[in-house]
Amino acid sequence: MPRWLDERESRVWRAHLALHTELQAVLERRLLADSGLSLADYALLVPLSESPDGVVRARDLAASVGWERSRLSHHLTRMQRRGLIARETCPDDARGAMVRITPDGISAITAAAPTHVADIRRTFIDHLTPADLTALDDIYTRLRAALAEESEL
Amino acid sequence: MPRWLDERESRVWRAHLALHTELQAVLERRLLADSGLSLADYALLVPLSESPDGVVRARDLAASVGWERSRLSHHLTRMQRRGLIARETCPDDARGAMVRITPDGISAITAAAPTHVADIRRTFIDHLTPADLTALDDIYTRLRAALAEESEL
């Protein structure tokens, strides 16, 4: 038998799950209404729009959002149909698919960003002190490193 | 124009999103394989199994997982078909739907819990110090209170 979660452990774990669901609901409703982008679209367009040449290797895109490759591939197909991204072959590695943001993709995220960033500030960042940010930065980095190690086992 | 996220704010926000996705993938794959329950099924069965008479008001169930009522209702319909829960009318309030866990629902969560709790410990709780738990408890409570206030506006 495992050691059960104590009251605080259980409360923190459930709050972690519920907070994500609540944030997602509030942020996605507004983002969709404003720009037609889902949070998933937005999360993928950010690293693409920040890359100097607008191109990111598919595997790096998957890692940046924490998705498995099959989920990324299905989602990219839908974004490609909507004209937000294009797929290319990596010149250095025939097996390495690359993803390029299109001019329409750039327009979409440029239009969506101001309101979405303001929403992220109002619902998340504005409630965190500098000490909270330091704590979360440290905790999230540690948890993600442990998960990455587990996935490689 | 909003103030853009600085490097640390942006890193924490993206890590928050990615961590949830990564945890969800690892935990749900195992839970489904072991017990046939999704994380959503499990999250709803926990408060039901902990209630003294196995009955919880639908609106309290929705609040405990951070879901909107329509999402809860659709999900409960599927769980009802699988025999995990039953719906009842609240005796005190004709409009207040109640949800009851069935004996099959109790068996399902009882069988799933030991492995799932061990997985939550290994991927999440075991990497947190007591100070981390205190910090997360405080931060998550504050963020959820702010979101609840925003939803009421």
Task: State the secondary-structure class of chain A.
Answer: mainly alpha
Strands of chain A, count: 3
If you compute it from the alpha carbons, what radius of gyration of chain A comes out, rounded to the nearest whole angstrom? 18 Å
Question: What portion of the residues of chain A fall into strands of 2 or more residues?
Answer: 5-15%
Mean pLDDT of chain A: 91
Instruction: Write out the strand line-up for the largest beta sheet of chain A, numbering strands in chain order.
Output: 1-3-2
* First and last CA, distance of chain A: 23 Å
Please describe the biggest sheet of chain A, giving its number of strands, its sense, and whether it closes into a barrel. 3 strands, antiparallel
Poorly predicted segments of chain A: none
- SSE arrangement of chain A, N to C: HHEHHEEHH
Number of helices of chain A: 6
CATH evolutionary superfamily of chain A: Winged helix-like DNA-binding domain superfamily/Winged helix DNA-binding domain
Fraction of helical residues of chain A: 55-70%
CATH class of chain A: Mainly Alpha
CATH architecture of chain A: Orthogonal Bundle
Q: What's the number of domains of chain A?
A: 1
